[in-house]
Amino acid sequence: MRVRQLTAAAAALLLSAGLGGCSDDQGRGPSPVPARAEPTATTGDVRAADRGAVRDGGTLHWALDGVPATLNVYQRGAGADSALLAHALYPSLFRPDEHGRLVPDPDYLVGAESTPPGQQPQVVTYRLNPQAVWTDGTPLSAADLSAQRAALSGLDPAYRGGPAAGYEAIDSVAQGADPHEVKVTFRRPYAEWRALFGPLYPAAETATPAAFNRALTGTGHLSAGPYELTRYDEDGGRVTVERNPLWWGDRPKTDRIDFLAAPPERRLDALDQGRLDVAPLTAAVDQAVPPPAPSPSAAPSSSPSPSAVPSPSPSGKGGSATAAAPPEAVPEAAVLALRRAESLPGVTVHRAAAPSLTQLTLNAARGPLGDPAVRQAVARAVDRRSVAEAALGPLGLPGAPLGSHLLAGDQEGYRDDSAAIGPADAAKLLDGAGWKLLHGGTRTKDGKELALTLLVPAGSATARRTADALAVDLGAFGIAMRTRTVPADTFVPEQLADGDYDLALFSWPAGPSPAVEQRAAYAKPRPDADGTLESRGNYGRSGTEEIDRLFDRAAGELDPAARLDLLQEADVRIWQLGHSVPLYQRPELVGVRTGVVGAGAFGFGWPRFQDVGWSR
Q1: Which residues are within 8 A (CB) of 509 and not within 5 positions of it... i.e. 6 or more apart?
Q2: Which of 137, 148, 497, 529: CA 20 to 30 A from 327?
Q3: What is the separation of C-alpha 107 from the centre of its chain, rounded to a whole number of angstroms?
Q4: DSSP readout, 526-595?
Q5: Contact, 481 vs 473, CB < 8 A?
Q6: Element housing 81 (H / E)
Q7: Residue 315 in 3-state DSSP?
Q8: Higher pLDDT, 533 or 145
Q9: Nearest to residue 512, comparing CAs of 397, 423, 581, 413?
Q10: Is the pTM higher than 0.90?
Q11: Which pLDDT value is given to residue 438?
């Protein structure tokens, strides 16, 4: 679960970027409230089959963005592809179900139980599967959990990976009644204990700073998954895993999986040429490059067909008779790329709503949005359903709007809390704040127009469609909006961190532990010693002590129902603050070759690699 425990800056996802290589995501959380809503999004789209219908043997070719710098997802160089490979090679004591609930993985965990709420100290007793062994035959044990706790607790700065959420709450790890029982004692109640030790690494890789700080690459390292690593070719762009001969669980159906570096812009070609069997396509579609606009001296040419969507040239430069395509061409290029993907022979495009929450963030530290009434007016002005339909409809996904800052529509306990901002419409709120609409057009106050800048990542068709829909919604209430696109690689570390914007469009991961994973996004900003207000991951730059307390109480509440109530109360307060407007779950598209089962768009889950293979 490390991918969802990254720092806030690293966890902020652009609309078409992702953390999980397996799903183009998967690398980091009162007033009356409405009744609980039913889930609003799909929970995954995977071609499943009974294991008896999957033939034994064969090779699968699975797309990566690139050979990862490390397989240790807790190291700073880890990314989406590190997480994908870790699912094939390393244990996770718990795994998410289709609704994001963490359940024990019986291959590694016979059972786990925490002391009841209110009993101190909290002790979690794990019963490890006695058959679970590392590839040298050593059983999984308390030593592995203890070493990982020491490496990730943040107590020893020599471990360069940085602390991971929850490990600092552990007081001790010890063997229980026998070598397969482990007792973890917490120094304070920690509700999200199921998210710990996933993935789990052998003590040999984590017991000392020197061992932990080494890049976990190449063959020869211990693992304990259905597959073992047999090839790690950074120059050749290939990572190969083969059946683990000591695997104790269901026999993996596929002899070998080749994970191949295939940048998004080349994936449709690779699928078309039969070089890939499973390929995440969200970025390939969303970031499809429009054909260069012809220069005035160039002869006219016909529009590209869906089967001939151009890719960038190796140099990244256009020819002398062309010019850069305008931003308006990006959505059209995405439509053509999707049509091409859908038309590829022997390939099915799987679709799902990713566990990633796209939101419109309002910068309370700048201009008119410093007034809570104006922020609430913006939230009321946005027609979330029309925005979701504009963003997702062209991708073949339902336009399901989000009503929660903290939970995805397919998570257990999801509730639409948008009514918390009150019944007043945007026009009345703006009138009351002094922004007058005299003769149509843009509202003014003290001679200044109500004009806001929206920051979006460059090259994203989904972002462009969303921005266009937002401009219509805000314009209807006299709010002028100008879109500013910036390179994806500087979006978080420069633009979001610097705060030079009014509105920003990006996504946060939705994990199984929102009380811990999403706290930084809404924590009250604190001034530094020099008085500078630092966001520290809260890019809306607004917060309250009450919201912080609700998150802290939820993180330590062991009763699931009470914890959910605290999270929903926090969500209500975030709505009332006008911090941000949840819009929709980010789309997830995956191309899968005909005959491959156990693969697709995984949503909250991840591949059960021993079941992935070719149908009989």
Answers
A1: 3, 4, 11, 13, 19, 25, 28, 355, 356, 357, 517
A2: 497
A3: 26
A4: EE-TTS-EE-TT-TT----HHHHHHHHHHHT--SHHHHHHHHHHHHHHHHHHT-EEEEEEEEEEEEEETT
A5: no
A6: helix 80-89
A7: coil
A8: 145
A9: 413
A10: no
A11: 82
The pLDDT tens digits of the residues spanning 304-330 come to: 332 222 233 333 333 333 344 565 667
DSSP bridge partners of 508: 357
User: What average pLDDT is seen over the chain?
Assistant: 87
Give DSSP secondary structure letters for 486-533.
Answer: E-HHHIIIIIIHHT--SEEEEEEE--S-HHHHTHHHHSPPEE-TTS-E
| Rounded Cα distance, 213 and 159, in Å | 6
In this structure, are residues 24 and 602 in contact, taking their beta carbons and an 8 Å threshold? no
Contact (CB, 8 A) for 415 and 37: yes
The whole-angstrom separation of Cα 609 and Cα 88 is 6
| Residue showing tokens 């799902």 | 352
Amino acid at 371: D
Q: DSSP characters for 95-163?
A: EE-TTS-EEE-TTTEEEEEEPPTT-SS-EEEEEE-TT-B-TTSPBP-HHHHHHHHHHHSSS-TTSTT--
* DSSP structural state of residue 272: H
Q: Residue type at 113?
A: E
Query: What's residue 29's pLDDT?
Result: 29
Q: What is the pLDDT of residues 85-105, one digit of tens each?
A: 999 999 999 999 888 899 999
Q: If you search the block for the tokens 């360069």, which residue do you land on?
A: 160
Written as one string, the DSSP assignment of 182-201 is EEEEESS--TTGGGSSSS--
How far apart, in whole angstroms, are the C-alpha atoms of residue 471 and residue 482?
8
In whole angstroms, give the CA distance from residue 310 to residue 449: 42
Output the six-digit token pair for 481. Answer: 């909006």
Give me the residues paired with residue 589 across strands: 351
What's the one-letter identity of residue 140?
Answer: L
Question: Quick check: 452 and 442 in contact, CB under 8 A?
Answer: no
One-letter amino acid at 360 equals L
Alpha helices in 382-460 (DSSP H): 384-392, 426-432
Q: What's the pLDDT score for residue 23?
A: 35
Task: Give the separation between CA 116 and CA 191, rounded to whole angstroms.
Answer: 11
Q: Is 422 helix (H, G, I), strand (E, B) or coil?
A: coil
3 state SS of 480: strand
If one counts every other C-beta atom within 10 angstroms of the C-beta of residue 99, the result is 18
Give the separation between CA 273 and CA 260, rounded to whole angstroms. Answer: 14
**468-477: string of b/e by CB count within 10 Å (b at 16+)?**
bbbbebbeeb
Give the per-residue pLDDT at 318: 36
Q: How far apart are CA 87 and CA 250, in angstroms?
A: 15
- What's the mean pLDDT in 261-274? 96
Of residues 108 and 37, more confidently modeled: 108
Distance of CA 179 to the CA centre of its chain: 36
Quick one: which of 212, 262, 237, 253 has its CA closest to 77?
212
CA angle 360, 341, 392 (to 5 degrees): 25
Task: Say which amino acid occupies 452.
Answer: L
Q: Are 350 and 410 in contact (CB under 8 A)?
A: no
Lowest mean pLDDT among 38-47, 206-215, 405-414, 537-546: 38-47
